[in-house]
Amino acid sequence: MDELLIKGAAVVVTMNPDRAELAGADVRVTGGVITAVGHGLTAPGAKVIHAKGCVVTPGLVNTHHHLYQTLTRAVPGGQDALLFGWLKTLYPIWARFGPEEMFTSAQVGLAELALSGCTLTSDHLYLYPNGARLEDTIHAAAEVGLRFHPTRGAMSIGESAGGLPPDSLVEAEPAILNDMIRVVDAFHDPRPGAMVRVGLAPCSPFSVSRGLMRDAALLARDKGVMLHTHLAENDEDIAYSLAQFGCRPGQYAEDLGWTGDDVWHAHCVKLDGSEIDLFARSGTGIAHCPCSNCRLGSGIAPVRAMRDAGVKVGLGVDGSASNDAGNLVAEARMAMLLQRVAKGADAMSAREALEIATLGGARVLGRDDVGSIEVGKRADLALWDISGIEAAGSWDPVAALVLCGPSRVRGLIVEGREVVRDGQVLTVDMAALIARQNRLAARLAG
């Protein structure tokens, strides 16, 4: 089996139960699995990666993204809008996408995530114009080399029926459920170490029916896959739920079977105390998207209260049309800063933010095989060079990753394979990819 030895790291941040941080340590990998963590390790014949001057962390985990949106960054008309107005601006543009746009945009987003230390990402694809399919993104992830948890999203209530999206972007609910069955059967891998797992993800309470939410939950339990949607994102979202359903989003979710350890919700900025307690009791996870929440003026999610109550919390970059970046370590820093703004300077430490970005995200996505550097875990690792200008003068190299940088990895390893080396993505031709992305964006804008 292929062996890899990461040698002489400045610090290995294990995220093990003791949260051990090992100075001058090594990590040995065999067949994509971590087989030893310690000092003075040897592996005759193994490929050696010298990690002097590097902090080694578990790969970061992104629990919410819309990869297709990297083609619509900084779009005029949507730059200063709240959620609903922003969506109204972007829907007509997204309606012109097809398979090429989905594939290329996903590859750009995945490569960007890789450079920010991400080894596992979810994706929420809820519109399928002009022949686009979920596998457009799955094939993109396979080429880039990241571990992938795509979700088959959907919208079924268009403007003519009182929903937010245009009728051209919604689908008939029987067709949605049939395609959910198709993609789960074709691509979902429940085994430990899986590179692809598929979830089901009706878009939001304002774009699908209660019936589809309930049917998707029943289907997910039958197939043994996870559920994902947007929930309680901003004040507009709460007002819609109260007006249309006569209840808050937490009750809406519970009534339809959308709580449990196989469910995670994006945003949850406006959850109240009773909803936080519900999610804690039921094991429901949350994808916290701090930069997007700031960009859209949605507010500050009560992450401190969630964590204190025992809610599983991970980080998400959200779509690149509402962020507009896809840098996961930057999300960790923003998560920490927002909790300090809301609750004081001791509300969240840099190490807690890093834990949420790694182990926290793995738990939200139901992965007990990644998220920490321990024997038996999959070899998903990020190497951060702390010898550069960003961390110069820092006294604490682990805290420096969140407080000052670097914000781009020197190396990234997924399932024991190098995806980034010396700050460069190895798996795709980045120059050609960027040129293709810019050409497609110009065509959409023309």
Percentage of residues in DSSP E strands? 15-25%
Number of helices: 14
Mean pLDDT: 96
CATH class of the largest domain: Alpha Beta
Count every beta strand, where a strand is a DSSP E run of 2 or more residues: 17
| CATH level 4 superfamily of the largest domain | Metal-dependent hydrolases
CATH fold-level label of the largest domain: TIM Barrel
> What would CATH call the architecture of the largest domain?
Alpha-Beta Barrel
**Roughly what percent helix?**
25-40%
In this structure, how is the largest beta sheet organized?
Answer: 9 strands, mixed
Uncertain segments: none
Radius of gyration, taken over Cα atoms and rounded to an integer in Å: 21 Å
Gap between N and C termini? 51 Å
Our count of domains comes out at 2
Shape category: globular
Structural class: alpha/beta
Description:
This protein has 446 residues and is α/β, with parallel strands linked by helices. It has two domains: 109 residues, Urease, subunit C, domain 1, CATH 2.30.40; 305 residues, Metal-dependent hydrolases (TIM Barrel, Alpha-Beta Barrel). The chain contains 14 helices and 17 strands. The strands form three sheets. Strands 1, 2, 3, 4, 5, 14, 15, 16 and 17 form a nine-stranded mixed beta sheet that branches. Strands 6-7-8-9 form a four-stranded parallel beta sheet. Strands 10-11-12-13 form a four-stranded parallel beta sheet. Helix 2 packs across helix 14, helix 4 runs parallel beside helix 5 and helix 12 crosses helix 13. The longest helix has 17 residues.
